[in-house]
Amino acid sequence: MEKGKLNWVFCDGYLPPKGDNPEFEGHDALMMTNLNDEKANIELTFIFEDKDPISGIRFELGGMRTHCVRLDKLMDADGCPLLGESVQYTVWAKSNVPICACYGRLDVRQANMAYYSVEGYSF
What we know:
By secondary structure, the protein is an all-beta fold. It has a single domain, classed as TM1070-like (Hypothetical Protein Tm1070, Chain: A, Sandwich). It contains no helices and eight strands. A hairpin with a 5-residue loop joins β3 and β4.
């Protein structure tokens, strides 16, 4: 039985602007689980509407482990945020072994905040 897919694409990336309450931090996150015994080597590529893709963000996910990547916390080589607020993007996760993945967002622009997760396209 296959335990996941090698590629996951989430087309609705968008880090909402900050809300009025500084106690709550909105975010985008990519959650991944490796149901195999073998370590997964994962590469993220970000695709934008009006600029070149950003690729080469790599990390390892151990066998039978899960990991959450806060996409709003990713930094470039100069220490600047990789993704800006209110920028539409797609994230493509590529792995050498099948994994499971989902994307989630916490939107804090309103007092009654919204959190939702999105299924991606996998192949």
